[in-house]
Amino acid sequence: MTQFHVLVPDSVNKKAVEILEQAGLKVTAPGQMKREETLAAIADADALIIRSGTKADAALINAATKLKAIARAGVGVDNVDLDAASAKGIAVMNTPDGNTIATAEFTFGLMLALARHIPQAYDSLNSGKWDRKSFQGVELRGKTLGVVGFGRIGRAVAKRAQAFEMTVIAYDPFIPADFAADLGVEMVSLETLYARADFITLHSVITDETREMINRDTLVTMKKGVRIVNAARGALINEADLAEAIKSGQVAGAALDVYGEEPPPAGHPLIGLPGVIDTPHLAASTDEAQVAVAIEAAQLIVDVLLNSTYKNVVNAAVLVK
């Protein structure tokens, strides 16, 4: 009987390896692999489990000779060339449930930090100052939160915002208005959301329509003094345009966990800019989330290789014979 081989070039929780090996699969999981190491190993792999550190681009996918499936231990698959995978009949799957709460909680943490200048006050006190006047903030209660993208994470953020007595509006072309209304959320157009929201939080995937949706033209349509939170994808924002809007006072501040290029290059317009809170892509980095996505990704691969069962496939056309 052929023993299937699973390549894990990113650091994932050991639970994933345990599940794969218990299923009788051969596993190569040395920790974070260098690009050239991954390219050399991929030819022998029947399946691939990755996080955000590995780019499954056309070069990597075309170097594979036996690959049947790629499982992303996380939600976003923008580090996978879906066209290249589909052309070779490779199913690409994600794990949308495992890090929902971690990301929602972190998003809300960013929003609170942004409203109350918590990181700046911390830095000030640790530099020897006792400055209370410079860090007067605003309350979340009574403010309108605009949620762009009302999927699992967007809904979890909305639920937490309601507990803080915020009014929640949302934009998502794929979510019925009556479904959102049952959750106490009003679905609106993107233009209406921009005009009404005191805080905007982004939870969209990257498409041609959403790429740099926050830009010079849309920023001027927003309420003056809006605060923007992004723990989704950096490419949703034109970073230079946002920096200018913060400098002008059109935007009161931003809290960012993701960037167009990661890590951000030297001279990035938002890093170190007053009014900006920036963190190094930490939203899903909890013990619980990393265990959950690792287990989910491993089980997806076991189901594909041993049972020919496919779940959470984002390029579903490959399954059509």
Give a written overview of the molecule:
The chain is an alpha/beta fold and 321 residues long. It is built from twelve helices and twelve strands. The chain is globular, with a radius of gyration of 21 Å. Strand 9 (199-202), helix 10 (216-219) and strand 10 form a beta-alpha-beta unit. The protein starts with a strand and ends in a 14-residue tail after the last helix. 43% of the residues are buried. It is 36% helix and 15% strand. The chain has helices at residues 14-22, 35-41, 58-63, 82-87, 100-116, 118-126, 152-163, 177-182, 190-196, 216-219, 239-248, 287-307; strands at residues 5-7, 26-28, 47-50, 69-72, 91-94, 144-148, 167-171, 186-187, 199-202, 226-230, 251-256, 276-278. The protein folds into two domains: 5-98 and 287-319, 3-Layer(aba) Sandwich (Rossmann fold); 100-278, Rossmann fold, CATH 3.40.50. The strands form two sheets. Strands 8-7-6-9-10-11-12 form a seven-stranded parallel β-sheet, with helices on both faces.
